[in-house]
Amino acid sequence: PYFTLSHCWGTSQRTCLMSNAFRAFADFTSFSGLPKTYQHAFLVTFSLGYRFIWIDSLCIVQDDEEDWKAQASMMSSVYKGACCNIAATWAPNGDWGCFIPTRASPLITLDLGLGQAIAYKVSLAASNQYYDDLVEAPLNQRAWVVQERYLARKQLSFTRSGAYWECHELVASEQFPTGVPKESRDFRPYSHAGPPTGKPTVNLDDPITLQAAWVALVDFYSGCQLTKLSDKTVALAGLAEEVRRAMEDEYLAGLWKKDLVKQLCWATDFDVRRRAKRLRIPTFVAPTWSWMSVDGPV
């Protein structure tokens, strides 16, 4: 049993596994030299009674292309097989840690009734809390994190207003321990082009809903950030393989054969077309009929 970590590397990743550092990592005995995000992830893992955690920068040899390709192809099984994924959602780099200062919106409780008789209690909270905490978080703007979040059976996200617990059955937070209201999870401002995220996990055992879920996922994923545009296909490959097995369909560079005619009707976002002179990724990533061949939201 093990945990995984989703995190932002930042502009420079100081601590990572290199081919000439195997001995140093094997003899590693102190946490003090590690980035704060890693230290916090270890603390959470151990506090919940687990001994092992998988972190990409520490478990993949970063200067070995063959090892990177081999590990990338197994990414779906790594995150799907974890007991829980820890997400440092608001840490732009490893120095911030998971436990950043909170700024939770107040939860106001009102007593409603007629006369002096109180019929029931009503709690009022900001409708955009979930959106602000998770959808707008720096971590969830990264393309690589999309499949990490969707594949994880359970996710513990540390945000700027507290912790969130997400699984197939429930999305809860410190503010709403019995479940975040659906209205809050479906909230999005009019300026947001992506889909409402709602529950982040997809039930891979339900092929009927997978096709619609994939379309919503493409809307969101295509607008996420990639350091290397050449990673656009591989960063989604693990999740695509899981969906392929569930739907028993043929995967065609971001599209599905059984629904190919409809899925070929994709278009780039109007505002992006208006601002950008060139949307095509200069190096070959996918055929031009695929939305993966362009840089920007569709």
Automatic annotation (TrEMBL):
Pfam families: HET
The protein's name: HET-domain-containing protein
Domain Heterokaryon incompatibility: 2-148
UniProt organism field: Eremomyces bilateralis CBS 781.70
